[in-house]
Amino acid sequence: MAASDYNKEPSRASDFTINQTTPFNAEPPVAILREHFVTANDKFYVRNHAPVPLIDEASYKLSVEGLIARHCKFSIWELKHSFPQHTVMATLMCAGNRRTEMSDIKAVRGVGWGCAAISNAVWKGPRLRDVLFMAGIEKLESLWDQLHVDFEGIDICKDKRGYGSSIPLHKALEKRGDVILAVEMNGSELPRDHGYPVRVIVPGYIGARSVKWLKTITIQMHESTNYYQKKDYKLFLPEVDWDTVDELWDKSPAIQELNVQAAITQPRDNEMIPKGSSYTVKGYALSGGGRKITRVDISFDGGKSWKVANMFTASQNLPKMDTKWSWEFWECSVKFMPSPCQIICRAWDEGSNTMPENIHQIWNLRGVMNNSWVRVNVVSDEAKL
Ligand code: MTE
């Protein structure tokens, strides 16, 4: 059903910053990313842990198994035609986004990412809850609070197992039904890098839970035992290092929801600001669990005073779609900027969560969930722009 090696990788955009070649891990130029609210398929960041599998759609079957009453296998045709197709706009972000800033403080283990391990797309496919009801999930109703949905991909990764992850069943069964088995991305079939022929989309959660090249869904009483749930994507104190972490993996919860995050996409660090009467700083912001961004603050004086940025998701040329799970674009104009200047950005969400000032306090050995204040240093050749 699937063959995989690095000689059969798909073609990719030439303007990506490649953070790792095998497996392929790359992010688009951040300024281009910020130009379009919906990211084009060939500009969407790619986070792979193994070669991209070559999958024959004709023989492909998605298996639903475990404690569920009716074990089922679905072809792609059945996933497309036996269930209502649901469309969700959702931003995916890797938990390792902005990891390089963390490793600048002290080395961390993991692929180095700038601030473009994030992208937004319109996904389409059957709702996971509809598939689970077809397989008889209602018969397990008394256990719903305790059950997990385990996903395994076809790509063989650590421990010679397919890449895997799980989410609590309650997330999969949410009434909105926005956790989907995506067979389309921005109106086309899924590109190979993004999970062809089917992937899970878990909006509001770290990208790691949106398993690509999906092979099996298992309903079980425990979370996934896969390496990427049990031994990765976890948070530890800054003082925990590789010689002390072993006993902590099992005691620490797997990260699920994203935290509140932002980036400045214009200007870039160390950029020379052109002369002029005003300058517009631009960026994105996003939070987890469907919590909307309520405010983005920008400082031009090291955090002594702040300006509130304008957010304008609604004014983008969007198809009429719910943006609950999407990032926000913001911008903030200034007439005068000191030179040199450190521009700082922090976002707030509707749970009143904000971003920590100090990266040292959240440093962790895997370099995940870096949402410290964003700092960009610029100079202009005139103190007054
Ligand atoms: N699913 C499989 N099967 N294999 C993977 O390597 N990477 C995960 C997730 N799903 C991964 C996967 C991670 S860590 C992220 S951030 C997202 O996919 C990235 O999705 P993308 O490559 O479509 O941007």
Unique bound compounds: ligand MTE
What is the arithmetic mean of pLDDT? 95
- The parts where pLDDT drops under 50 for at least 5 residues are none
Q: Find the CATH superfamily of the largest domain.
A: Oxidoreductase, molybdopterin-binding domain
Primary descriptors:
mainly beta, Sulfite Oxidase, Chain A, domain 2, single chain, 385 residues, binds ligand MTE, five-stranded mixed β-sheet
Explain what the structure shows.
The structure is a single chain. The chain has helices at residues 30-33, 76-81, 99-105, 128-134, 169-172, 227-230, 359-362, and strands at 2-3, 17-20, 25-27, 46-47, 54-55, 62-66, 72-74, 85-93, 118-126, 148-156, 162-168, 180-182, 184-185, 188-189, 199-201, 214-220, 261-266, 271-273, 279-286, 293-299, 307-308, 310-311, 328-334, 341-349, 374-380. It has a five-stranded mixed sheet with strand order 7-6-16-10-11. Helix content is 9%, strand content 32%. It is globular, with a radius of gyration of 21 Å. It has 385 residues and is mainly β. It starts with a strand and ends in a 5-residue tail after the last strand. It contains seven helices and 25 strands. The protein folds into two domains: 9-251, Sulfite Oxidase, Chain A, domain 2 (Alpha-Beta Complex), CATH 3.90.420.10; 261-384, Immunoglobulin-like (Sandwich), CATH 2.60.40.650. β10 (148-156) and β11 form a beta hairpin. The structure holds ligand MTE. Residues 44-49, 92, 94, 153, 155, 163, 193-194, 207-208, 210-213 line the site of ligand MTE.
